[in-house]
Design a protein that fits this description.
GO molecular function, one term: iron-sulfur cluster binding
CATH superfamily of the largest domain: Alpha-helical ferredoxin
CATH class of the largest domain: Mainly Alpha
Radius of gyration: 19 Å
Protein name: HdlC: putative heterodisulfide reductase-like protein, subunit C
Pfam families: Fer4_9
Number of helices: 11
Strand content: under 5%
CATH architecture of the largest domain: Orthogonal Bundle
Distance between the termini: 15 Å
InterPro entries: 4Fe4S_Fe-S-bd, 4Fe4S_Fe_S_CS, HdrC_iron-sulfur_subunit, Helical_ferredxn
Keywords: Iron, Iron-sulfur, Metal-binding
CATH topology of the largest domain: Fumarate Reductase Iron-sulfur Protein, Chain B, domain 2
Helix content: 40-55%
Amino acid sequence: MQELNTKKRGKGMGQENNELLLTHIGPIKEMIQTCIQCGTCTASCPNTKFMDMTPRHMWRLLLTDHADVIFSSKSFIMCSSCYYCTLRCPRGLELTAAMSLLKQAALKLKLKRFRRSSLFYEAFLDSVKKHGRVKEMEFMTHYFMSMKNPLLPLGYAALGTRLLAKGKIRPDFSFGGKGKLTALFEKTAQLEG
């Protein structure tokens, strides 16, 4: 898949990138086509204070084909899937599902801006797939190795030490439970196509 240049040019990433992005978000645009821009999603969202763009603004940009501006933002990544927006939407739009599809599009497009969160997500799911649960030490080791930045773990050393001291994580690298969820992950991959 072609990797996109996500450097900001003005407000978005450029017309050539916008066209490529639009091909990946067509189904999302269809999902929110009947949005009336009432702002209930923004008022309902507990994470708007962490977003650089409100959900209502994001839906407006999506409806007006400004995908480059949406993917220049990290707002959709901040969605915690609480479903408040979906439950309160007067039009009954599946806004949480739309946010999830935006996250999936960012992963599929391998956007540089979302590299860190994508690798974190992949390392997390890899640990769950292998063991049926998260093995924290292995998970974080996998994540740090995939980031290819030898200084990154140092930023987490103090937190890791405190968690170890309190017994919240264990230096367990055993490989028990391997493959318990493999069938589930394979079925999900098949359904996602």
